[in-house]
Amino acid sequence: MFKLKDIARENILSLHPYSSARDEFSGNTGIFLDANENPFGELNRYPDPYQKEVKQKLAELKKINAENIFVGNGSDEVIDLTYRIFCNPNKDKALTFTPTYGMYDVSAAINAVELIKVPLTTEFQIDLNLAKDFLSDSALKLIFICSPNNPTGNLINKAAIEYLLKQFKGIVIIDEAYIDFSNSESWITMIAQYPNLIVSQTFSKAWGLAAARVGIAYANKDIIQLFNKVKPPYNVSELNQQAAINALTNDTVFKQNLQTIKDEKEKLKVGLNQLNQVIKVYPSDANFLLIEVMNANRIYDELVNQKIITRNRNNIIHNCIRITIGTPEENMQLLNALKNIAI
Length: 343
Ligand SMILES: Cc1ncc(COP(=O)(O)O)c(C=O)c1O
Description:
By secondary structure, the protein is an alpha/beta fold.
């Protein structure tokens, strides 16, 4: 049985968080002489520490309660806070399935946590036989699953995730940074059923707000309360909160752009498959395509020479390049450039 108090760090469970001026009084009207702010200017007031308006809008959109939502300074903050809440430095461990998003590793190293890397299969799926033996290690606190996975683009099998949620006594984090590009359902709907599930999402990809740095964690309210205790008091700036609120309020452009990116992905896939330079285009539920080519280093360099920057993943997946879906013009230019590279 999963028990949060057996998994979270003791010092975090007993932490008395900083109480900000805006925690003690949160009304909008009055004479505010409590937070040592400057009385002049436009951005002179501290932002809402709990991002209530952003959460309210997200709660409506996702049909869950605001108390199940944490908003962070990008989902990279969610990843870092997860380590800090659950893993004692130089003692506890985390596990992930590789190749995957590099920040699980970097954040583990920053927090002095050992990250166990279990290789994905050749179809980039979880091999439970390889993972099973690690689950009983009492030092293992976290499992990171990226779905759709970066840099491979595929969704991770539902049955394997369900197995881990049921069998593992620690926390399972499903990173859904790219889920809006997929036609599959989010795992958010399962947070009531699995008390050990955290789902992270972001405004950086489909919402087009990478510069604003707004990430989200969805989980049961006891986990969300731990995030709220540990986060810096004003972790999401007023400008960033407003950017997220605007996007959620006026979502017509967002929806149009999302559809354009999905359509362009299909077109790019067809175009890439016609090129001699391309050996394979992997299936993708994200806003990028992983392609296998004859010589990734050379193709990457030749594209850079033409000022087209892709992500060379040759060092982690042999001869593979990851290509983000751009505007229709950018994708056309990419295809033309690739066509003109001799094999
Ligand atoms: C899988 C995955 N998770 C998280 C992030 C980081 O997102 P954010 O901009 O919200 O920090 C990225 C960014 O590339 C990503 O690929």
